[in-house]
Amino acid sequence: MNVAAHELVDRDVLLEDLVGSPGATLTQRVLETRSPSVRLHLLQEFLIGRLSVVRPEDKVVNAVASHLARARSARLEALSRSVGLSQRQLLRRCRERLGYGPKTLHRILRLQRLLLLARRHKWWDEGLAALAYASGYSDQAHMAREVQALTGTTPRSLLRRETCTLAMSDLFKTDLGEFG
What we know:
The protein is mainly alpha-helical. It folds into three domains: 5-53, no CATH class; 59-103; 104-179, no CATH class. The chain is 63% helix and 0% strand. It has helices at residues 15-19, 21-32, 36-50, 59-70, 76-83, 87-98, 102-120, 123-126, 128-135, 140-151, 155-160. α4 crosses α7 and α9 (128-135) packs across α10 (140-151). The longest helix is centred in the middle third of the chain and has 19 residues, at 102-120. 19% of the residues are buried.
């Protein structure tokens, strides 16, 4: 099934509804397996098998994501010019592949950078303001607003949930550039 990513944002979708009976089979096998490592192996095996039916990558969207992972700010006009697309075309392609536009991607990647830096460094020693700046926020208040908007909690609460939240920081393998 060929579904644009924006059609899946904020929705719960069964794997079976996306890929048919192989998704139902995988779901059943994962639910029957107690071992986390075996579950992971089943998922990896399934995803590797699906590579042959995946749409070709969009090099423009990849370049945009790579740029935004390193950028302190996201100027849509300059970004669209740099990849040779209109702002509307860039927004459409990002929404189709990622589920949201470049600005939202930038916010998410900056949050990922925050989580990664918090995990790698003792953020409580230098304080949240230093962590905010190193993560690409203009100041601590900017970070607080963004974290609240994206996660529904404060930065301090988010960063104290190491076991569930900081483990997500490698999800996008954010390129830290000068911040790492």
